[in-house]
Amino acid sequence: MLPDDITKEIAEAIGLGKAQGALIRSVVAASPAEKAGVEGGDVITKVDGKVVDKAADLRRLVAAVKPGAKTTLTVFRRGAYKDLVVTLSEDERSKRPGSTESSEPAPAAAPSPSSALGLGVSDLTDAQRKEMKLKSGVKVDSATGAAARAGLREGDLILSVDNVEVATVKAFQAQIAKADKAKVINLLVRRDDVVSFLLLKPAR
After folding, report:
1. Is the separation of the CB atoms in 119 and 143 below 8 Å?
2. Nearest to residue 77, comparing CAs of 26, 37, 35?
3. What is the pTM of this model?
4. Disulfide check for 36: which of 19, 69, 86, 197 has CB 3.0–4.6 Å away?
5. What's 115's domain CATH number?
6. What domain count does the chain have?
7. For 107, which DSSP code?
8. Range of the domain at 144
9. Domain end: 60, 94, 128, which one?
10. pLDDT tens for residues 35-73?
């Protein structure tokens, strides 16, 4: 797992409330975390009932677990809490990954209608989904204006909009159209194998 701290702005945008927990940016294929159902974009808030305030807490708590022991992770995913039971291996315990990504891009001011976001998206083929092990997502073909300023770029995959998975361009457009024009729109974005939240703010 590649954990990172979660900012106050992202916590508020995804409905977590306060900036607490470790945001999972990437999950190693076939790892105990993936087998337990941990996904990129999950926010781990507790390990065996112990509160995780930031990524360093998650690393410390995981390192304290005996190899082979079952551990309960409380995750916040798409607006709801969920408990996942994971059996940690020595490899998972000993990893001390630092974030390989730079800090979150500055959110951009943008009107809410999708045409005004500066985003061109397309559907993924079944073969692409299978190859990338994705249940949902649309591919970014172009990102200009507000979308580019928010940090989106061609080739990114948008997995969810405001905590709702989007599997098709139609679903993406519908979710953008429904977005509250007075609030930040949160996008769960995958780039290569790393997932992060990007925030689009409506114009003031």
Report:
1. yes
2. 37
3. 0.77
4. 86
5. 2.30.42.10
6. 2
7. P
8. 108-201
9. 94
10. 999 999 999 999 999 999 999 999 999 989 888 889 999
